[in-house]
Every structure is written in C-alpha cells, then in structure tokens.
Amino acid sequence: MRTPKRIIKMLLGLSLSAILLSSCAFGGLKTGPVNKNKDNIELTVMTMYAGNDGNARNFKNAVSEWQTRTGNTVLDTSVTSDEAFKTRVIMDYQTGAEPDILFYFAGEDASVLVQNNRVVSLDEIREVYPDYASNMKESLMPASPVDQKVYCIPVNGYWEGLFVNKKVCREAGVEIPDENTDWDTFMQMCEKIRNAGFIPIAASLANVPHYWFEFCIYNHQDPETHSIVPGSLEDEQGKAWIAGLKDLKKMYDKGFFPPSTLSASDDETMRDFISGKAAFLLDGSWRVSAIEDAAENIDDFCVTFVPGKNNRKTTDIIGGLSSGYYISRKAWNDPEKRAAAVSFVSFMTTDAMVSKFALVSVTALKSGVKLEQEDVSSFVSSALYMAEHASGVSTAVQDYVPAESRAPVFENMPAIVKGLTPVEEAIGEVIECIK
Questions:
Q1: Which one of 137, 322, 325, 376 has the fewest CB atoms closer than 10 angstroms to its CB?
Q2: Nearest Cα to 428, choosing from 261, 260, 240, 232?
Q3: Dist. CA 362–CA 416, nearest whole Å
Q4: What pLDDT does 331 receive?
Q5: In this predicted structure, which of 100-114, 249-263, 372-386 has the lowest mean pLDDT?
C-alpha cells in the first residue's frame, strides 16, 4: 500500500437550486483554547467513524487532541454504519444505555429520539451557550421532521456517486461512464465487463443494498419527487419503487453483481473493487479518503455520475446533510457532564475540524478553511467535477422512512432479487409499516 500524497480537501455547499463549490484544505488545526477541567470527566461517544470509514483515523486523532486539551476522557464506542448500527442506537436509548454524545443520522432515523426527549435541541443548548454552533448556516442545518427543530450539529454531508476502476474498464474494452452515459448504455457496459471475466458492480445486496435501491428508484422519478415516500402501490411513488426494484432484480439476474453479493460483507466487495476484480462501486463521498489510502495507483480510479433514464438526468445526484452530533438528554441533565459535552461537540465542529473531515462532501459552514489548491489527484478532481456539475440534487428517500419500516426491503433484498418475495409484496409491507 502506498503512502498517499497530501490531498487538498474541498468543501461543497448545497442550496435548493444549485450546488456551489468552494475549495478548502487543512493544515494545522486552529481550534482555539480549550480549558482543562479540574476533574476528569468521562464522556461516552458513539459515532460511525469506524472500520473502513475514511475519517476513522481523523476522529481518533481529534479525540486524542481534545482529551489532551481538556484533561477529560472519551470512551469511544464507534461502530461501522449499517442497519444493525441504527437498531443498536435505538435499543441503547430505549434501555437507558445511550452514549453522552451521538454522531447519528437526521431525519426519520432520529425521530424516536426526539419524540422521547432523549436528545437536546439547539435552541435549548443556546439558552445556556449562546455561541454554540454559531459558525454554521442555519438554513443548512438539518431539522427534525418531528418538530422542525435542529438537534444535530452537522460535520459533513454527503453525495453518492459511481466510483470507477478505470483499469478494469480498459481491460474490458469499455469507455469510462460520464455525464452523457445513459442507463441502457451502462447496462451494455456491465454486460461487456461481465463477458470479459470481471465483476461489473461491487456491491453487497445482503449488507448494503440501499445505494442501488435509491438510484434504481430515482431513475423513475426526478429531484423534486424522489424524496417523497409512497402512500400506496398505486400512487406515482409506489409505481416508481416497484419499477426501480424490478430493475435491480434484472441487474442481479444478469450477473452484474459479485457471485457472493447475497452473503458478502461490504468490506469484501470493497476489496473486489480496489484489487481490480470489479469495475464499479456505488457509494458516498466518505469513500474518497479510504480509496486514496488503499489504491496502489490512485490515477486508476475516478468518480462519475450514476447513469440515469426517464426523467432523471444522469447528472441528477443524491446528496445533502444527513447526520451530525447530538447531545443526549442524560448528559445535558448531568451537571458534571454538560459543559464537557458542549466542549466536545464544539471542538469537533470548528471550521478547521469540519474542513478536515469534509473531504469532498457538503458542509453547513459559514466559512471554511480556504487554502491554495495543489497536489490534487485526478481522482479527487473527478469527484469535485461530478459534484460541481450536478444538475439536480435530492436527499435519500430512505431518510424519510423509519428504520424498522425498511426491513421488508433492505433486510429482505436477497429474497427479492432471487424472486422468492414479489417486489409488490415487499414494498406493500414497507408502506403498511409506515402507516
């Protein structure tokens, strides 16, 4: 594994009508003074910065720095993000085993935490700490669907795109997909790659089916309608979900996924992509750093748009600010932990720290750390090009579906693509769970 050259980190800001590009980088972090406490305070912190997450190392380094500055201690219980992680979070809060600080999703995933008063709102925190998160744009901070209040302070958002192993494409004799590649052409590419002896798409439909679920449905919608949850199988959204999942089943039937896609882990399919066994990987902006670290030659990789069809342009992407730091009600009500919890989140959400974690993703910063652009790899440049040239953006529809309601599709995806569970039946169960 090579040691990657310094990557200039870039920030992308989203608006309702466009995605605006601003270049950022980080050098030495200037996070300001953090006073040491008289007594050591231990905070339990759970995040998704674990496993092969590109920011896992950044998080550990930041925690170490905060501990040194304050004299406090962090009990890090971070785990890799998947559906099991979401279930664990909810169970921890239900049983009183919740962390003091939680880095978690906004939207429906956190609704139960808000409804049960287990996390503290920005408004309440600012009554005591008026400058809390004052470096963030209010309009870009994700609000809870429960009461439209802000509970999580975002570090970075995301976009989802198609990562490409260019070497595999060259050896299979196919062009690199770009903004002009439509879905039918992409399917033809996948068939040619399969016939050349490679895996067209690295994906675990057992472990992380949601990326292809999103884009296959998106192909039957547009940026204005994708995030609307279906109310029935007969409405426009219900029909789009049915058509999208049937497209996903066709991809499975054609052998476009790994032979082990119904049993492999996400880590295993990631290795297929990096090692040159697979051509494409649909994933999020958080993968950029991990691929930079793992690739022997980063110029063999690029990021491009997921080919589209129907009303969805290929350049219409999925993105947004979907996660952030929560302060648990338990920590807020503890006189010894309150100040430490506010200190930790404030430290992790400074301009410099957010810029360090953001990579090429979205932030809510009013102003990031701006330095000259230099030593940017072709891989990072391709990711920036994709995000900058997006024609439309939609948040992921799964963010509006309660975690327990997704099970008939997400946990049952192997049975769906194998034809053991009819698509209409699975989606119907999701709709019934939501009602």
A1: 137
A2: 232
A3: 33
A4: 97
A5: 372-386
